[in-house]
Please model this.
Amino acid sequence: MTVEITATHRVHGGTLRYCRHASASTGTPMKFTVWTPDGEGPFPYLVWLSGLTCTEDNFTTKSGVYEHAAQHGIAIVAPDTSPRGEGVADDPAYDLGQGAGFYVDATQAPWAPHFQMYSYVTKDLLEAVDGAFPLNPSRRGIFGHSMGGHGALTIALRNPDSFKSVSAFSPIVSPLNCPWGDKAMSAYLGEDRGLWRAHDACALIEDGAGSGLDDILIDQGLADSFLENQLKPQLIEAAANSAGRKVTVRRQAGYDHSYFFITTFIGDHLAWHAARL
Model:
């Protein structure tokens, strides 16, 4: 799979590359960034999944992750959140369509032809970065924010052989139980809520998925305006308790849903993953 490097930057003793490649899953060009430390590798690495309205650039420019990645010798991959371009379905709302792929494989019109983000992340993206950069696929983790936190949790739970660690900031833990999930899952997957369970972290834990993961780290700001209506971290705590699984939810007083929150605690997440990779 050919990867085109469109820009290169030196940062924190490593190399950041902006990349583009053709995705068989989405049928579109897709963009991502990859940062690698200096050296021959292969390096352990983390895949970051961003939230609603984001591109590959938000985390890349705002998170402050590379200083911490350099300390631990961990590479970082950050893809776009959806297919884009002419002929790709969209919606005027911020929480559906382009910029809002929800990391599922859509089955419904008009989304199904291109909105195959679960397959993109778990197949096309990994094949592209593993083939083009000195990365170690046996030492790979995943993390994300909000919609991307949902994606990280569900993808790791369903693919524990591919991802050895998972964490999230302010994740949507249960699309079955929040307005964002109702809207996106019904649009992309249809009205059969039983089909949504494969993309609901709480349901996956209840169903025994990802039992080999030793822990899941979640940071949640208590000043997050989406906390009570959309995010509901207590649901994943309850699911984990019922299943005898470990999920660590850290509630951070005063922090909101923004990248100011993420950059404050991103170092903790890098250290947490480094201990597992």
